[in-house]
Specification:
Length: 548
């Protein structure tokens, strides 16, 4: 009996090996066939109200398991009636091997021939499809994914116990979703998207820059905001801020009323540097406020001053992370004017706490580990593997977007000057590194532009114009060659009434008041270009060598 079982097992094993070998032999053929099919499919006409060529429900009968780079299964496809400004669409849900969940919404009778994908935030773990609503209303095919796992955006990324899920949260999930989504679009409409766009902020901003560097053919136009580089930011910069702004019990070192004192002192010193006293610091780097100037006399406490401990905490947050040798561990710190967006509640530490416990080290630290255990001398080297895995820019290198530039891609990057979670200096360093590598800032403005948003917090918020739409700008740039010189930002009150508007110009230009008229009207501002192009590269431990 044992002999017969062993023989049966050997035979079965032999058949499996034969199938595996056959698969290895035939895979290049399948890939080539898929490539030819993709090459043969026509590009869609734009703005032609295209209809699906299949019944929506029939998409689940299609085989997408052989899609190179993104073997997928569609779990459901149902028609959703037109409502609330959205057209009727086919709502498709599925997953990519091993478990990247995605959702795709395909206008059934009004497709405009374009594809749009939205990024995620924090640790992701959710399908951010609701942030495609404005673009779906314009009849794009739209998609979103959960970056390869289920979880909470801000707490405990338990998924990272699995190396494959770390990989997907890094560079794979966004690309794989673009691959399968375009394949489904092509199968449904019988045509490939004429143009493809990506938009995301924070983690979504990181996704956009990752796509430009590592999958340059996925998107024709990318809008990336306040990019949060999970490796260099999560373990180091966010932890630095939390260790300085929070006591061990989670209470704030600088309470809210003292943050107001600090903020008002900074505005009094620097608000009018741009010629307009309006509660907005145009470029915080021009502000040279000394926090020590509002320290309470005699080292005590006071309602209109900061204690010595509070001054020291603020100085550290503005300067940014350093080790005991004084070396920079991150390109920069918080900007003057960002005080209201600082993380000063116990929940503010959830991002660095989760990052360090679950995604920054391998293997993960003991369960007793907290963000307060992080040592800025000995721990940063232990996170290098995470930086290489998650961030668009490997340690020691400059961002390389030459392939994206060569294929004609267009990139808009924006950042709030008052972002208290991700330093704007990180973005300006990134931009200047690209400029240094690819021909200078005047040259790269032909395909890559940055917009700095005065007074805006992380991705949104702040007592300043902070709402804007770069989609028309990126489309005009990609499809018509019209570069975006400026876009109007709007601030509204809680009732939705416009408070003020301000033009945002492509860096290093910035808005300058005309000298007459209402400063709240965008028409009373113009673009001012500095006399020389800046070099904002920063010397820090994991940046490329800098010689200004």
């Amino acid at each position: 009996m044992m002999s017969r079982v062993s023989s049966a097992r050997r035979a079965r094993y032999g058949r499996l090996v034969g199938l595996w070998v056959a698969a290895l032999v035939l895979l290049p053929l399948f890939t080539a066939m898929a490539g030819r099919a993709a090459a043969d499919a026509p590009k869609a006409a734009t703005d032609a109200n295209l209809s699906g060529q299949l019944a929506c429900a029939d998409l689940t009968k299609q085989d997408f398991t052989r899609i190179p780079e993104a073997p997928s299964t569609l779990l459901s496809a149902v028609v959703v009636p037109a409502a609330a400004g959205a057209p009727e669409y086919c709502d498709v849900k599925g997953y990519i091997l091993p478990q990247i969940q995605f959702e795709l919404r395909l206008p059934t009778h009004s497709w405009n021939g374009r594809y749009f994908q939205v990024g995620c935030g924090g640790f992701c773990g959710v399908i951010n499809i609701q942030n495609c609503g404005d673009v779906l209303a314009q009849n794009f095919a739209v998609a979103a994914d959960n970056m390869g796992h289920v979880g909470d955006m801000l707490h405990d990324p338990l998924f990272a116990a699995d190396p494959d899920l770390r990989r997907d949260y890094g560079r794979r999930s966004t690309h794989a979703t673009a691959v399968i989504a375009k394949a489904v679009v092509e199968r449904f409409y019988g045509a490939k998207p004429a143009w493809s766009y990506f938009r995301g902020c924070s983690t979504g901003g990181r996704e956009g820059l990752t796509e430009a560097a590592w999958a340059p053919d996925d998107f024709d136009g990318i809008i990336a905001g306040d990019p949060a580089f999970a490796g260099r930011l999560g373990a180091i910069a966010n932890t630095w801020d939390s260790q300085h702004l929070l006591h061990a019990d989670g209470t704030p070192v600088i309470p809210a009323d003292k943050l107001v004192v600090l903020h008002q002192a900074i505005l009094a010193a620097c608000d009018a540097l741009d010629g307009v006293k309006d509660g907005i610091i145009m470029d915080p780097r021009a502000c040279h406020f000394r926090v020590e100037s509002i320290e309470c006399k005699g080292g005590g406490e006071g309602a209109d001053c900061l204690s010595a401990a509070q001054v020291a905490a603020a100085v550290a947050v503005y300067d940014g992370p350093r080790n005991s040798k004084g070396e920079r561990l991150y390109p920069g710190g918080a900007m003057f004017g960002a005080e209201a967006s600082w993380g000063t509640t116990a929940d503010s530490a959830s991002l660095p706490a989760g990052a360090e416990r679950f995604i920054e080290f391998w293997p993960n630290p003991p369960l007793s580990y907290t963000y307060r255990d992080f040592n800025f001398d000995t721990d940063p080297p232990k996170t290098l593997a995470a930086v290489r895995l998650y961030d668009p820019v490997p340690p020691g290198e400059a961002p390389n977007l030459t392939a994206f530039e060569r294929r004609g891609g267009k990139l808009i990057l924006y950042h709030g000057w008052a972002d208290g979670g991700v330093s704007p200096i990180n973005t300006l360093d990134y931009y200047s590194q690209v400029a240094h590598l690819q021909g200078g800032m005047a040259t790269i403005r032909g395909w890559f532009r940055v917009f700095m948003v005065p007074g805006m917090f992380h991705c949104r918020g702040g007592d300043a114009p902070n709402t804007f739409d770069f989609m028309p700008a990126i489309m005009a740039w990609v499809e018509k060659g019209v570069a975006p010189d400026g876009v109007v930002a709007t601030q509204k009150d809680p009732a939705g009434a416009v408070v003020r508007q301000r033009p945002l110009y492509a860096y290093p230009e910035q808005g300058a008041y005309n000298g007459t008229g209402d400063v709240s009207q965008a028409s009373n501002w113009h673009a001012a270009m500095p006399a020389t192009m800046p070099d904002d590269r920063v010397a820090w431990i994991w940046g490329p060598p800098v010689n200004h």
